[in-house]
Design brief:
This protein is mainly α and about 400 residues long. The protein has a single domain, classed as Up-down Bundle (Amino acid/polyamine transporter I), CATH 1.20.1740. It contains 17 helices and no strands. The longest helix has about 40 residues.
Amino acid sequence: MTRNWGLLLGAAFLMATSAIGPGFLTQTTVFTEKLGASFGFVILMSILLDIGAQLNIWRVIAVSEKRAQDIANDVLPGLGYILAALIAMGGLAFNIGNVAGAGLGVNVLLGLDVKTGAVISALIAIGIFLVREAGKAMDRFAQIMGFVMIALTLYVAVVSGPPVGEAVVKTFWPDTVDALAIVTLVGGTVGGYITFAGGHRLLDAGLRGPDALPQVTRSAVSGILIASVMRVILFLAALGVVAQGLALNPDNPPASVFQHAAGTIGYKLFGMVMWAAAATSIVGAAYTSVSFLRSFHRSLDRHHRWVIIAFILISTLVFVAVGRPVKVLILVGALNGLILPLALSVILVAAYQQRIVGAYRHPLWMTVFGGLVVIAMAYLGVKTLIAEISKLLQ
């Protein structure tokens, strides 16, 4: 039971820290500045939708005892390879951003060049996968960094003195409801590769089958709640700054929250939080993206740790050589919005196919929840993709 608890917590933190990357920090502060205390309602709605998406995906992965791409191939031959290609492309593109974020964190902390910091961070991430018990090392790294991020951000939230009462009230009775913000948060928390990080980790560790469903459900909900705790704390920190009438630096909104709240110390704390968020996202993106490539060939499955290391090296080399390829990141980011509705719709279909899930009966309320997420994310995902393609063609 102790081993299982450690595994469940490790999978939850892997999912949560994969979600808490540089983009997560920026999204939260920007929307707080825009919506004020009403952003609490957006967080509440996104938590409910996140849980709906994660429960469907993790449970069907566990009960079918297959990775998501293999489930997709069972539903429609060839679909799993399309899903795997989208996940891998998105994971690689966003990992370039994660490497950049880690470099920025080192720069703030130690004053080193951003590219030097990026290389150091990549080597630390690679070191995790060189350990014999790489899975356990990855779990432990995610847990430690998760606690560090939450603790440091909590300090800044307390120092900033947010209007907590107003935040609580507006969480349930907001002044405005921003649908785009809700979908953006859902995509940022369970979009792309993030959705599958914990589910694939539990599968690889041997926690599978109908008997494991209570534990899988607990781990999935824990992952969302851990990411949401970080989101709420960062929201309160930013709200405390915004409520004082202080403007956030548009070039680096989360850094200015920490700096306004706690001065030079706050800025250094931001460096640590940024590094922890980016480094754990490097690990999560590489592990999960490669878990989708393992079905392509037996040699990829057999040598998956080396493929993960290569994935991190390629991300780092691209950043060091050309920086962040903005147009590629924008386009892949828009495509990323389509991964969740595609994958979740496949999972919902698979949940009712006996040849995939056996005698398992999927709860109707989960199907309804999942269907709502699919419709909302598909509509806004297509809308965003068309808008981004139009911008690139101009």
